[in-house]
Amino acid sequence: MVNQLELVTYFQEVEDWCGNVLQLLSERYDELQEKELLEYKVRLLLNRMETTSYYIDQVSFLDEISTDVDDIQGRLLALLNEEEYDDSYSYRAVTSEEKIEPGKHELPPLPYPYNALEPYISKEIMMLHHDKHHKSYVDGLNRAEIEIVNARKTKQYDLIKHWERELAFHGSGHYLHTIFWSILNKDGGGKPTGPLLTQILNDFGSFEDFKDFFTQVTKKVEGVGWAILVWVPRANRLEVLQTEKHQLFTQWDTIPLLVLDVWEHAYYLQYKFDKDSYINNFWNIVDWKEVSYRFEYAGQLKWQPYY
């Protein structure tokens, strides 16, 4: 149980610290793009602190505040040391076998400033999409995992169907968005090289044919969902899939390489009803190096085919 007096004192210290950070940014970093990102994160944290009256007894809220403070502090130290803050580790293959306990997933930071993908994806969309929508999937996944663990412990399975659906929806939403951020880059576009290009040529005939097919599949997604380029270990080839929402009408035993979010929250504020332009502009910011990196790892996995 958290001591309430200590909790209130901690929140006050965080508020004071946020004020000092904003003052430092104002005095020393007028021209830096990272300044805008840091200022936004600090102000977002201060806004969340105003909800303490609703969460004062929740240890999870304290953990979230502490995580935000650590993120801001890490970015600030990198800026003070005149180093580029690199979040790419969040998306790279790792050798660590440390597991994430149920209910402990965290929102991965964006690997670039909110305005980095303009004019193709606006800063406002990136803020809402990442900080609100993606965060909601992380929160939903954590809650579903906790409820499922509780069901196993208590042997009470009356709501297990509901929580399994929540697990699939929010878990898929979290994982797909994590891939989505990683395969976008302000210096993207063009086409891939190396083994990925070779595989695309083998499976689709030409890069132009692949690009046109992926684009058309995306435009034909019914309702809200995704288009996904996947590696199929059982067939030893690439395929393009649709999925509605995040988890419906897709295919198991495949590995996502390139994903495109066509939920309305991904484009509507900027493109309104012109979803086609959003899809067409997507090709200007695809980070083919990242997609190729994913393919190099995925392509090593091959199952016994049956034909």
Question: What is the overall silhouette?
Answer: globular
The residue fraction in helices comes out at 55-70%
Secondary-structure element pattern, one letter each:
HHHHHHHHEEEHHH
Physical arrangement of strands within the biggest beta sheet: 2-1-3
Q: Please give the radius of gyration in angstroms.
A: 21 Å
Largest sheet: 3 strands, antiparallel
The averaged pLDDT comes out at 84
Write the layout of secondary structure elements.
Layout: H1 4-28, H2 33-49, H3 52-55, H4 59-80, H5 123-154, H6 160-182, H7 194-204, H8 207-219, E1 225-232, E2 237-244, E3 255-261, H9 268-271, H10 275-282, H11 288-298
Antiparallel strand pairs: 1-2, 1-3
Helix pairs in contact: 1-2, 2-4, 5-6, 7-11
What does this structure look like?
The chain is mainly α. Helices cover 55% and strands 7% of the residues. It has helices at residues 4-28, 33-49, 52-55, 59-80, 123-154, 160-182, 194-204, 207-219, 268-271, 275-282, 288-298; strands spanning 225-232, 237-244, 255-261. Strands 2-1-3 form a three-stranded antiparallel beta sheet. Helix 7 packs across helix 11. It starts with a helix and ends in a 9-residue tail after the last helix. Mean pLDDT is 84; it is low at 52-57 and 83-93.
Describe the structure using short key phrases.
single chain, 307 residues, globular, metal-binding, superoxide dismutase activity, superoxide dismutase, metal ion binding
